[in-house]
Specification:
This protein folds into two domains: about 1-215, no CATH class; about 220-335, Nucleic acid-binding proteins (OB fold (Dihydrolipoamide Acetyltransferase, E2P)). Helix content is about 40%, strand content about 15%. It is α/β, with parallel strands linked by helices. The protein has twelve helices and nine strands.
């Protein structure tokens, strides 16, 4: 009857997904990210899980990225699709602008299958922010700023994000390409950048900029930056929770990726947290949830104290927000 067929259908999906993830990780991950929203986990979680399984990602780049994620030499190139505020038609115009002889939309589809662009004789890369603005007239000032903050305007690592943002402000001025712009003004902007007046972002700042501008990062996990200080406080990582004994009292920190309250669970809440080592799972009884409701529902980064249970679960007793982390991680939450 229905239960058996329903179970068989889910079993087939689970087996097929597991097979693809094990043997075709790059293709599987690319397809998942290109077809989002779908499934249970956010793109940020999918990327970190793939990285822990050995997949390498390449940063978003106006000279390399398509609208969708693509595969280059076995690694995944981030797509322009994830830059917040960038319209699809502008992303496609960027790809068309650097590949003028390519048919629009022909480079890659939602499954991201194409070869590295470095061998494409039609490839005509953008050389500067000004060049991009000139060749892609559809782009507006909000979009050029978004690309700057996402790190997509580094031009073969010759320009860092803050410098790109500075140059983008110059490039989007109404008179940027007019003959009235004096040579003195050009020399001033060049001298400021050359003098090191604009300092590059730190690794932490770049990570936060990634999360704000794209909701994903291919750099270090946010928790990795805090690990040394957490260790000194005796706070465990996710992987360390896998070997706990029942009734061990522990404190774990991470970013919340799932908050569940199934209708059949009598108001019990289940939380999954993530860090650079993997996932940790918590059960929250109704009275504890009500006591810490606002902390649980309004913070992306939490420190949880609890007692280890069977099956790798931890019964949460105390919650505390982790300060100093400004960006948020996407999570799957009950409503």
């Amino acid at each position: 009857g229905f239960p058996e067929s329903h179970a068989a259908s889910f079993a087939l999906l689970a087996y097929a997904s597991a097979y693809l993830k094990v043997y075709y990780l790059a293709e599987y991950t690319t397809a998942m990210l290109n077809n989002f929203p779908l499934g249970f986990y956010s793109p940020a979680t999918l990327i970190k899980d793939a990285q822990r399984h050995g997949l390498h990602f390449r940063h978003v780049d106006v000279n390399r990225s398509d609208h969708f994620f693509t595969i280059e030499d076995g690694e995944v190139r981030m797509g322009l699709k994830y830059v917040k505020g960038l319209r699809k038609e502008v992303a496609e115009a960027i790809v068309q602008g650097r590949n003028p002889t390519c048919r629009e939309g022909a480079e890659s589809g939602e499954f991201g299958m194409r070869n590295s662009e470095s061998s494409d004789s039609n490839h005509s890369p953008f050389t500067s922010v000004e060049d991009l603005v000139r060749r892609v007239p559809l782009i507006n000032k909000k979009e050029i700023r978004a690309l700057s903050l996402a790190g997509a305007l580094n031009f073969e690592r010759s320009v860092h994000r803050r410098e790109a943002l500075w140059r983008s402000e110059l490039a989007i001025r109404p008179d940027v390409f007019s003959e009235q712009r004096t040579a003195d003004n050009e020399h001033v902007s060049e001298d400021v950048a050359a003098a090191g007046f604009i300092r590059p972002m730190t690794e932490w700042q770049a990570m936060e900029s990634d999360l704000r501008s794209m909701a994903v990062t291919i750099g270090r996990h946010p928790m990795a930056f805090l690990r040394e200080g957490l260790k000194k406080r005796g706070v465990l990582s996710a992987i360390e929770t896998h070997t706990l004994q029942k009734k061990d009292v522990v404190t774990v920190a991470g970013t919340v990726i799932v908050r569940q309250r199934p209708s059949t669970a009598n108001s019990v809440v289940f939380i999954t947290m993530e860090d650079e080592t993997g996932h940790s799972n918590f059960i929250v009884m109704p009275d504890i949830f009500e006591r810490f409701r606002r902390v649980i529902t309004h913070n992306s980064f939490l420190l949880i104290k609890g007692i280890a249970e069977e099956g790798g679960m931890i019964k949460a007793l105390y919650f505390e927000p982790i300060g100093g982390v400004m960006a948020e991680i996407g999570s799957h939450d009950f409503h």
